[in-house]
UniProtKB/TrEMBL annotation:
Protein's name according to its UniProt entry: Glycosyl-hydrolase family 116 N-terminal domain-containing protein
Domain Glycosyl-hydrolase family 116 N-terminal as annotated: residue spans: 16-296
Species the sequence originates in: Timema monikensis
InterPro entries (alphabetical): GH116_N (IPR024462), Non-lysos_glucosylceramidase (IPR052566)
An annotated Gene Ontology molecular function: beta-glucosidase activity
Record lineage: Eukaryota, Metazoa, Ecdysozoa, Arthropoda, Hexapoda
Coiled-coil ranges (or none): none
Entry's transmembrane regions: none
Length: 296
C-alpha cells in the first residue's frame, strides 16, 4: 500500500459508525470513539476522550452509590471505572453490530450495550439509499439483579469536531431539539459546526418511553474537568435541562460538548431498556482539491 504520509497501521477499530459516502466514525476495541472520516478521503486517527458514556446509580433513598465513566481506555482526562468492560463485535449483514457489557459490583447491576449501525451494507435485496445513513443507535439493557429499587442513569457525552486542532477554531454552537414521529418522541442536542469549511451538524438523542426520563445539557467545556456535568448527575442522576437552548458561539481556542441522559427506575430483579443515538448531517462536501462541490 502506498502512503503519502507515514503512519503506523494499528488494528484497533471495529466496524465504523456511518455508511458509504456519508462519513464514518470508528469505535475501538475498548469502546472509544476514534478514526474520524468526516473529510472525504481523509482519515484522522484521534481518540476523543470527551466522547463517552457515564453510568450513575442511586439507591431507593435517592443517594448516589456509584458513578463512573464506562471506558477502560487509558486517558488522564476521564475518571476511570472499576467495572470490567469487554467488547465483542460482529458483522451481521446487512447491519454491523458491536456489543459490550459490564457488571457493577457489589450493587449487582449488569449493563449491556448494543451499538447498531443505522446504515445497511448494500446487498441484492437492500436499497443502496439505506447504506448511506450516517449514524448509530446505542441500545442499553440494564439488569437490576439486586433485591432493592435502583435508579440507573446512562449519559452520553459528545464534543464538536474530530479531535484535531480545528476543533478550537470557534463558531460552534448547540441547541436542544424534540421531534414527535409516528407517536414516538425523540429529543436531544445538536452541535452546529464546520469541518474543513464544510457545514456539519452532530446530533445526540434519546427515545422517550414509559419508565425512561430523558434530560439534556446543551453545552459544557470538554477541555475542563467536567465538574458541572459530574455534580449535576450525582445529585439525582438527571441533567438540569434548561428551558431554552444556549446560542453562545465558541470563540477561537474554545470547544463545545453536549450531554444527553436517560434514567430508569428498576425494582429488584427487573430489566429495563433505553435507546440513545448519534447521527450527523453534512450535506455539502468537497475533496481536498476543492475543484467541485458534492451533495450527500
Amino acid at each position: 500500500m502506498e502512503k503519502e504520509r507515514s503512519f503506523i497501521l494499528e488494528l484497533f477499530v471495529w466496524a465504523p459508525i456511518g455508511g458509504i459516502g456519508g462519513g464514518t466514525i470508528g469505535r475501538g476495541f475498548k469502546g472509544e470513539f476514534c478514526r474520524f472520516q468526516m473529510r472525504p478521503g481523509m482519515y484522522e486517527y484521534h481518540t476523543v476522550a470527551a466522547n463517552q458514556f457515564i453510568v450513575t446509580i442511586h439507591n431507593s433513598e435517592g443517594k448516589m452509590i456509584y458513578q463512573k465513566v464506562l471506558s477502560p481506555y487509558n486517558t488522564r482526562t476521564v475518571k476511570f471505572p472499576t467495572l470490567s468492560v469487554f467488547n465483542t463485535s460482529e458483522i451481521v449483514l446487512p447491519k454491523a453490530i458491536q456489543t459490550s457489557s459490564g457488571r457493577v459490583s457489589p450493587w449487582k447491576i449488569h449493563l449491556h450495550q448494543c451499538c447498531l449501525d443505522l446504515a445497511k451494507f448494500p446487498t441484492a435485496t437492500t436499497p443502496h439509499v439505506d447504506s448511506c445513513i450516517p449514524g448509530a443507535a446505542f441500545i442499553w439493557t440494564i439488569e437490576n439483579n439486586s433485591d432493592s429499587l435502583k435508579y440507573v442513569g446512562i449519559t452520553m457525552t459528545f464534543k464538536n469536531g474530530t479531535g484535531g486542532k480545528e476543533d478550537k477554531g470557534g463558531g460552534c454552537w448547540s441547541e436542544m431539539f424534540s421531534h414527535d414521529i409516528d407517536g414516538q418522541t425523540v429529543s436531544g442536542v445538536q452541535i452546529h459546526q464546520t469541518v474543513n469549511k464544510m457545514p456539519c451538524t452532530y446530533a445526540v438523542a434519546a427515545k422517550h418511553k414509559e419508565g425512561v426520563k430523558v434530560t439534556h445539557m446543551p453545552q459544557f467545556d470538554p477541555s475542563g474537568k467536567g465538574k458541572e456535568l459530574w455534580e449535576d448527575l450525582s445529585k439525582d442522576g438527571e441533567l438540569d435541562s434548561p428551558s431554552a437552548s444556549s446560542v453562545h458561539k465558541t470563540r477561537t481556542g474554545e470547544q463545545l460538548a453536549c450531554a444527553v441522559s436517560v434514567k430508569l427506575s428498576l425494582q429488584g430483579g427487573r430489566t429495563g431498556q433505553a435507546e440513545l443515538a448519534l447521527v450527523w448531517d453534512m450535506p455539502n462536501i468537497h475533496f481536498s482539491g476543492k475543484s467541485k462541490k458534492y451533495r450527500r
